[in-house]
Design goal:
By secondary structure, the chain is mainly α. 55% of the residues lie in helices and 0% in strands. The protein has two helices and no strands. It has helices at residues 16-34, 42-71.
């Protein structure tokens, strides 16, 4: 059973793109706190965070694309205890 994502066993879970977006928001908040930090460690951390943000953006786009594909076969019934739209139960 997954801990975070929506499944028939976890109908109140998150969609992947929503989790990734929340992580991205957290990184933005953390970056804002080190934006003006002149210490030698702050610059590489900012650089790494910018790269991570770009990667998260790509992951969010992929997850949204998967959701769009799944939505073409109808809405998820996981919240109602229904079967998965694809894959084995």
């Amino acid at each position: 059973m997954t801990r975070f994502l929506v499944t028939p066993e976890n109908p109140t879970g998150w969609r992947l793109e929503d989790i990734l977006s929340e992580i991205q928001k957290d990184i933005i908040r953390r970056c804002s706190k080190i934006l003006e930090d002149p210490s030698p460690l702050a610059a590489p951390v900012r650089y790494n965070n910018v790269r991570i943000m770009g990667m998260l953006t790509e992951c969010i786009k992929l997850a949204e694309d998967s959701s769009r594909l799944l939505n073409t076969i109808g809405p998820s019934q996981a919240a109602n205890g229904g079967p998965p739209r694809i894959g084995l139960p």
